[in-house]
UniProtKB/TrEMBL annotation:
<dbReference type="GO" id="GO:0004497">
    <property type="term" value="F:monooxygenase activity"/>
</dbReference>
<protein>
    <submittedName>
        <fullName>Alkanesulfonate monooxygenase SsuD/methylene tetrahydromethanopterin reductase-like flavin-dependent oxidoreductase (Luciferase family)</fullName>
    </submittedName>
</protein>
<keyword id="KW-0503">Monooxygenase</keyword>
<dbReference type="InterPro" id="IPR050766">
    <property type="entry name" value="Bact_Lucif_Oxidored"/>
</dbReference>
<dbReference type="GO" id="GO:0005829">
    <property type="term" value="C:cytosol"/>
</dbReference>
<dbReference type="InterPro" id="IPR036661">
    <property type="entry name" value="Luciferase-like_sf"/>
</dbReference>
<dbReference type="GO" id="GO:0016705">
    <property type="term" value="F:oxidoreductase activity, acting on paired donors, with incorporation or reduction of molecular oxygen"/>
</dbReference>
<keyword id="KW-0560">Oxidoreductase</keyword>
Length: 148
């Protein structure tokens, strides 16, 4: 069967899990070959700084997750800008964010290519985790350009 990985949630295990899936794959009536889809957080903006601004609220959500505090609402980036990721989880949040696709169209395109090559993904599922609905929709057009 095909498989999908939630790289946007736990990116540290995606490569090993995809490799193991391929090793153990057995053809079936649903799929004659391994097929890997990878869900990746995608934030495309005019500048790297704007992408980081839009991504900061999800970094705060991840921080709570790493602290074991459970889910929280995604804050508006203007509110999130006044909050810091706690020091005890800063490295984990930074690593998780670095595994995603954030930045300009060119940066996101390069990141997609790297993720596809490293994981061997057949398909990417883009998750635009941006607070404002209009900004979220505006991220999709350049994200699809980056995916081409």
């Amino acid at each position: 069967m095909p498989v999908a990985f939630a790289h946007h949630i736990r990116p540290e295990n995606t490569v090993a899990a995809a490799r193991r899936y391929r090793e153990l794959f057995t053809p079936s009536r649903w799929s004659d070959r391994p097929y890997v889809m990878v869900a990746i957080e995608t934030i495309v903006a005019e500048s790297e700084e704007e992408a980081a601004f839009l991504a900061h609220p999800i970094d705060l959500v991840r921080a709570r997750m790493f602290q074991g505090l459970g889910e929280t609402a995604l804050l508006p980036p203007e509110v999130a800008a006044g909050l810091e990721v706690p020091a005890e989880v800063r490295d984990a949040v930074r690593a998780s964010g670095a595994a995603q696709a954030r930045g300009t169209v060119e940066q996101v395109r390069a990141r997609f290519a790297e993720v596809v090559a490293r994981i061997g993904a057949d398909e990417l599922m883009l998750g635009v985790l941006v607070y404002d609905a209009q900004k979220r929709v505006r991220c999709y057009e350049p994200a699809t350009k980056a995916a081409r």
